[in-house]
């Protein structure tokens, strides 16, 4: 998959996006159609019901679903979504379901380790501020973002190169929307033979109030306001993705429907089946 033309435009900056959300009903269940009031490009998406009803695709993208998978060597999916929407859980589930057939791209961060987040820690390479800045100056990152004002995140080139050389046909990465844009552009320019798609986890049928509650239940009070602001900015940017992975509220708290939709995408597009090791 090639990068969408929209990547060539300069995305709006944070404060500009914040103003677009002014007056948006906090209690309105989120759908792509209602979000066209904030981000018109959400009208480009339609449901891929023949794959899974919780999977939507940008009809203007040269998306993987329209291409023959015959002769493919690999497929690369870039996973992003707002805070508290299950990125790491979905990634870990795919790692289990496609055991032996999947390569997960590890990213670097200067963030301290979180003992309460064993799932997310599995896919992080921790660096000191000095180490990160040295690698940045050396041009060792494909993309990097200052996520919360003090900690840095980035994708080392060597982790992607290792995955591309491996035997696994499925490659997955998780990060922030701006990082996903850079990753998709990088793959299009340097490895156009590897179909690459950005999948955005969409808080389907969840209101902004509900999203705020979800963030507040998972993060310290001092972080909630900034993470909620970031969540709205990332939802805005999610309209640049190739696919929307609907993640509706579930009583168990586990994103089972989103995981099933992601599995359907991998199976139908890349042609990789769940591993017998997944149980």
TrEMBL record:
<dbReference type="GO" id="GO:0005829">
    <property type="term" value="C:cytosol"/>
</dbReference>
<dbReference type="InterPro" id="IPR027417">
    <property type="entry name" value="P-loop_NTPase"/>
</dbReference>
<keyword id="KW-0418">Kinase</keyword>
<dbReference type="GO" id="GO:0004385">
    <property type="term" value="F:GMP kinase activity"/>
</dbReference>
<dbReference type="InterPro" id="IPR008145">
    <property type="entry name" value="GK/Ca_channel_bsu"/>
</dbReference>
<dbReference type="Pfam" id="PF00625">
    <property type="entry name" value="Guanylate_kin"/>
</dbReference>
<dbReference type="InterPro" id="IPR008144">
    <property type="entry name" value="Guanylate_kin-like_dom"/>
</dbReference>
<keyword id="KW-0808">Transferase</keyword>
<protein>
    <recommendedName>
        <fullName>Guanylate kinase-like domain-containing protein</fullName>
    </recommendedName>
</protein>
<comment type="similarity">
    <text>Belongs to the guanylate kinase family.</text>
</comment>
<feature type="domain" description="Guanylate kinase-like">
    <location>
        <begin position="74"/>
        <end position="266"/>
    </location>
</feature>
């Amino acid at each position: 998959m090639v990068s969408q033309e929209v990547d060539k435009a300069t995305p709006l900056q944070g404060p500009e996006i914040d103003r677009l959300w002014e007056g948006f009903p906090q209690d309105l269940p989120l759908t792509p159609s209602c979000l066209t009031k904030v981000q018109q490009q959400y009208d480009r998406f339609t449901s891929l019901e023949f794959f899974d009803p919780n999977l939507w695709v940008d009809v203007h993208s040269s998306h993987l679903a329209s291409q023959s998978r015959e002769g493919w060597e690999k497929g690369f999916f870039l996973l992003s979504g707002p805070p508290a929407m299950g990125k790491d859980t979905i990634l870990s589930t795919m790692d289990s379901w496609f055991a032996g057939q999947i390569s997960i791209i590890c990213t670097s961060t200067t963030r301290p380790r979180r003992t309460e987040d064993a799932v997310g820690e599995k896919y992080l390479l921790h660096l000191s501020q000095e180490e990160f800045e040295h690698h940045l100056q050396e041009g060792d990152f494909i993309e990097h973002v200052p996520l919360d004002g003090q900690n840095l995140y980035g994708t080392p080139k060597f982790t992607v190169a290792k995955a591309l050389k491996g035997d696994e046909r499925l490659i997955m990465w998780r990060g922030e929307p701006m990082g996903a844009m850079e990753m998709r552009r990088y793959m299009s320019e340097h490895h156009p033979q590897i179909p690459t798609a950005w999948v955005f986890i969409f808080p389907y049928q969840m209101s902004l109030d509900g999203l705020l509650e979800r963030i507040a239940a998972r993060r310290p009070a001092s972080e909630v306001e900034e993470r909620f602001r970031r969540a709205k900015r990332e939802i805005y940017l999610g309209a640049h993705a190739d696919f929307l992975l609907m993640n509706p509220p579930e009583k168990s708290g586990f994103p089972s429907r989103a995981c099933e939709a992601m599995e359907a995408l991998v199976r139908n597009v890349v042609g990789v089946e769940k591993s017998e090791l997944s149980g």
